[in-house]
Amino acid sequence: xxxxxxxxxxxAGVLTAAGLALAACGGSAPDTGTGxxxxxxxxxxxxxVTIEHGDxxxxxxxxxxxxxVADPVDLEGVEPGNRVDFEVKFEQGRYIVTDIGPVAP
Length: 105
What we know:
Layout: H1 3-24, E1 32-43, E2 48-53, E3 63-69, E4 83-91, E5 94-102
Parallel strand pairs: 3-5
Antiparallel strand pairs: 1-2, 1-4, 2-3, 4-5
């Protein structure tokens, strides 16, 4: 595991804890969002994709993050350097990509 991936996972943990704390305080944060970014790494077997993305309004600030990918999502053709639009949801304590595809021309 590289230091970058370890750092991304640590950041994901911090974000997860912040979301849970907000929910416990009665605040309501959205649990889904749409992002646009550049693929940095893809782990097809591990069902993970690392994306450097802009702000996802109401969900998270711009960052580079490794996301889990929902089982029905096809990662074929998703490669580092691809510009993508993606859907993400917060579920069971983690952020999961539920749809991903190339940025429309």
